[in-house]
Design goal:
Elements: H1 2-15, H2 17-53, E1 60-64, H3 75-82, E2 87-102, E3 105-114, E4 124-129, H4 134-139, E5 143-147, H5 148-155, E6 164-169, E7 172-184, H6 187-193, E8 200-204, H7 205-212, E9 219-224, H8 230-244, E10 251-255, H9 256-299, H10 301-309, H11 314-351, H12 359-386, H13 389-395
Parallel strand pairs: 3-8, 5-7
Antiparallel strand pairs: 1-9, 1-10, 2-3, 2-6, 2-9, 4-7, 5-8, 6-7
Helix pairs in contact: 1-11, 2-9, 2-11, 2-12, 9-11, 9-12, 10-13, 11-12
Length: about 400
């Protein structure tokens, strides 16, 4: 009996192909919306985690608290932190928002004063040439590493090692030689802000300090030996720096991990709200299924009457209509998931970011879609099951 119900259900779907396609499309659009929004949230979370993890820095930055002191952090503070017990590595943070000039063109840029250590404020992946080395740091060399976005902006190609650029530092343009091209952890940020900050340039921090006439740091980022004790190590390092300057309160630490958790929570809430809004379209599609099936019941009254007159029970008729609703929802949800993931893939390729697939979200979307379809199919199925043969023939 179940096999006969399945055959009848698929046959009925094929009778009104255009109507079935429209109904399936409604489900597909709803599911695709949920998958698309959910995937954007998942990719956003993964991207933020990757970007913050690319700091590598054990999740702590140390700076002076301008509310309580006018102390500026120096090279001596950097060396002191490197020797502190919980610290594995410490690197200075020197950032300037300025202009870069090449080939008669001028663009906005972010200049990062970097050290020669492996862990930088923005992770660098060498593409061409070399990275900043110890000799560059020690001598404050007039060299720099650019990201490939900078190379594309000015030369329309990736490898521009050996070229020179002019960078606005300390109120004047200084000439630096490009010794390397890198793919940086900041590329996603660049994609987001577009023309506002189209390039990142990496210069020895000592070079930036020399031209700026300022040998201080705004912040120092540290890698901790034991990341399980971030809170206690944070308190220790704050007290350590306060003791160094013999003050009660003058330094503060920021826990990057907490910022990551905060951003993740915000993304989760935004994704949940947007997914809920998108799910409304599934309810609308469910109403469409119910409407179409009620029409189908009215169109097939004679058929239903014949089936019941030769022994078909209410359960068989109801099962047949529910199978139709289930099939429409299942096909629509599978197409919707495929469409949504296709759009996500295309977006990731366009933005050059890794794609994250949330299989749990996909399964939930399919189950929710099928459940809505079946629920909205119950009423027309019940109408068909309650139809008496004599009434069916009279209606016909």
């Amino acid at each position: 009996m179940l096999l006969d119900s399945l055959i009848c259900s698929f046959r009925n779907l094929g009778r009104k192909k255009f109507r079935s396609i429209l109904t399936i499309s409604g489900i597909s659009i709803g599911v695709a919306s949920v998958v698309l929004i959910g995937s954007i949230g998942a990719i956003g979370k993964e991207t933020i985690n990757k970007e913050l993890s690319s700091l590598g820095l054990g999740s702590l930055t140390i700076s002076t608290d301008s509310k309580f002191t006018d102390i500026k952090m120096t090279e001596e503070d950097l060396e002191s932190l490197r020797e502190a017990g919980p610290v594995k590595e410490a690197v200075p943070i020197v950032v300037q928002y300025t202009n870069v000039k090449m080939r008669g063109l001028i663009a906005n840029t972010v200049v990062w004063g970097v050290d020669d250590t492996e862990d930088q404020v923005i992770s660098l992946e060498q593409k061409y040439g070399r990275m900043i080395n110890k000799n560059d740091i020690a001598s404050g060399s007039d060299v720099c590493v650019v990201d490939y976005n900078t190379a594309q902006v000015f030369y329309k190609r990736d490898n521009i090692v050996g070229k020179k650029l002019e960078l606005m530092l300390g109120g004047q343009y200084v000439t630096l030689e490009i010794v390397g091209v890198a793919a940086s952890g900041g590329n996603i940020l660049q994609t987001m802000v577009g023309d506002m900050i189209p390039s990142f340039i990496y210069v020895p921090y000592t070079t930036v300090q020399r031209y700026m006439g300022d040998n201080t740091f705004s912040q120092i980022a540290v890698t901790l030996k034991d990341k399980e004790h971030i809170e206690s190590d944070s308190e220790y390092l704050t007290a350590f720096m306060n003791r160094k300057y013999n003050i009660e309160r003058g330094f503060k630490t920021d826990n990057i991990s907490k910022q990551k958790d905060t951003l993740n929570n915000m993304l989760n809430i935004i994704t949940m709200v947007l997914s809920s809004i998108a799910a409304v379209s599934l309810v609308v599609a469910g109403l469409g299924i119910m409407t179409i099936m009620i029409v189908s019941v009215n169109e097939r009254t004679k058929e239903i009457g014949i089936k019941k007159s030769i022994g078909a029970t209410k359960g068989i008729i109801m099962t047949e209509f529910l199978i139709e609703a289930f099939t429409i929802s299942l096909i629509g949800s599978i197409i919707g998931v495929g469409t949504g993931m296709g759009l996500v893939w295309a977006g990731c390729m366009f933005l050059s970011i890794p794609m994250t697939i949330d299989f749990q979200m996909m399964i939930v979307s399919i189950v929710m879609s099928v459940a809505i379809g079946v629920i909205f199919g119950v009423y027309p199925a019940t109408l068909a099951a309650k139809l008496r043969p004599v009434d069916a023939f009279r209606t016909e």
